[in-house]
Each structure stands twice: as C-alpha cells, then as structure tokens.
UniProtKB/TrEMBL annotation:
Protein name: AcrR family transcriptional regulator
Annotated HTH tetR-type domain residues: 16-76
Keywords: DNA-binding
Database matches in InterPro entries: Homeodomain-like_sf (IPR009057), HTH_TetR (IPR001647)
Record-annotated DNA-binding residue ranges: 39-58
Domain of life: Bacteria
Gene Ontology molecular-function annotations: DNA binding
C-alpha cells in the first residue's frame, strides 16, 4: 500500500502534467485558429484530457489564456541576442526590437495573445504583469555596450521605448496578422525617436574604451 505522502506527490505531479498539457494544447490550437474560436472543451480534446478535469484547472478559457500569455512573456525575456559589439546605440536597439519581432512572427499564439485585437485587455495585462523586466533587459543591454548618460528612471525610460514599439507591432498584427517589415521599421523609428530625447546621437562604446586603455599600457 502506497504511503500517503507518496500518493499526494503523485497526485500533484499528475495535476501539474495535466495543467501543462492543457496550456500546450491551447498554444497549438492558437497556431490554427483565432483566439475567439477556441473553447476550453476544444483544448481538453486536443490535450486528451476529460473536459471535467480541464474545468477543474481553468474555470474558463480566459484563465487559461492568461497563464499561457504569462508563459509567452517569460519566454521572450529569455531571448538572447547575438554576442557582438554595436557601434551605435541605435543599432543595439534595432537588434533588440528586431529579435522580439522575429519571435512574435514565429509564434501565432504569441502574436494573438500579446498583440492581437481580439484578445481581451485583461489577458494582455496578465502577460505584462511585470513587463518592466523588458525595460530592465534593454537597459542592461545598452549599459553593457555604452557609457550611458545618467537618467532618473533608466529602466522605465527603456520600458516606454518598448511600449512604443509594441504599439506599432499591434497595429501591424491587426492589419496584416504579422509584424511586417514596414511596421517593424516604424516601430524602430518610434522607439529610437523616444530614446533620442535621453541619449545623444553618439555614445562612447565601453569595449572601445577598454581597448584604448589596454593599448596605452
């Protein structure tokens, strides 16, 4: 006879596995259907889980979408840029925004839940629950490459630049179901123009300063 602790751990593990399977199934369905066409019953069927169990984990499809949106946002924070030195902060920003656009264009679930016009605002807000992370990531990237001017709220400033880019991304998804090259360009213009209020056109790269100091020794 199994001990109570062992049975409880098995039940918890089984519950986590089912919950993850439902989220994964919803993500798969969003590659094929629009966000407002999918029901929790469809998700349960795709995950091969009884509908009654699905409703135990998620009272309705919106709750499931919120969890998936958070998962997608978490994935985006882990995107790595190519390791290289940028000569201009504008190019560094372009690489950051362009990499985000590439991720979003490669995943219809991410485009729909994070940017799509049919997604309810509360679902998008769930994905942005601590979206300041993206501002921190962009600031860290720029700060690792350049000697930045002192800003009162640097992470917030970078976050606002990302929000400007996201606005153009959302408009593009609404009109073209993807982030087009033209709208990616507009997103870069908007984000760059905003940051240009805080950064001069040319910033001294840190790597170059290090190289000069080494050569002088």
């Amino acid at each position: 006879m199994a001990e109570p602790g062992t049975t409880k751990r098995y039940t918890q593990a089984r519950g986590r596995a089912r919950r993850e399977a439902l989220v994964a199934a919803a993500r798969t369905l969003l590659q094929e259907c629009s966000v407002d066409e999918i029901t929790l019953t469809m998700v349960a069927e795709r995950a091969s889980i009884p509908a009654s169990s699905a409703y135990h984990f998620f009272p309705d499809i919106r709750v499931l979408y919120k969890e998936l949106a958070c998962q997608l946002a978490d994935e985006m924070t882990e995107i790595e840029l190519p390791a290289m030195q940028y000569d201009r902060w504008q190019d560094c920003l372009a690489a950051f925004v362009g990499t985000s656009a590439m991720y979003l264009n490669g995943d219809a679930a991410a485009r729909q839940l994070l940017l799509g016009p049919q997604t309810a605002p509360d679902i998008k807000r769930a994905a942005c629950h601590d979206d300041m992370r993206f501002g921190a990531i962009l600031f860290s990237l720029l700060d690792s490459q350049f000697h930045l001017p002192k800003l009162r709220t640097p992470v917030l400033t970078c976050f606002y630049a990302i929000q400007i880019a996201d606005t153009f991304f959302s408009l593009s998804v609404q009109d073209h179901q993807k982030i087009s090259e033209d709208m990616l360009g507009e997103a870069l213009v908007g984000a760059t123009s905003y940051l240009a209020n805080y950064f001069p056109p040319i910033l001294q790269p840190k790597a170059k300063l290090t190289a000069v100091a080494t050569d002088a020794m």
